[in-house]
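Action item from last week, closing it out:
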Amino acid sequence: MSGAWKPPLISVCFVLHHLSFRGHHKLIGVYVLVWQFSTGWALAQDDLRIKAWSQQLAEKLHAINVQKGIASEFVYMGDAGEWQNPYAGFPNENVARMREIRSSYDPHGIFSRLNWGGFKLGL
């Protein structure tokens, strides 16, 4: 029986990061605290519970940061959860331009429909 149950592993990492990249973002040139956490667990029946917990934690941390006036809607697409919208932190004109380009190369949305997963631009 020993080894049949493994407690969830939860790691939270906080990184002080200087936003020095060029682009349209209100926090460029300042230091920001970037937080990221990852989880691991052994039992498939824990999937929904751990995913729900991590989503609730992310939303709670973000709400606290919004309340303190230190939040950004930017979410790095490579680290975004499936329930997050990484486009929310993009300037509206950039998202509109991406949609315009998509429409010119894929007017019927074939690649968006046939390519599962990832973050779609929506309509």
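Closing note: The chain has three helices and two strands.
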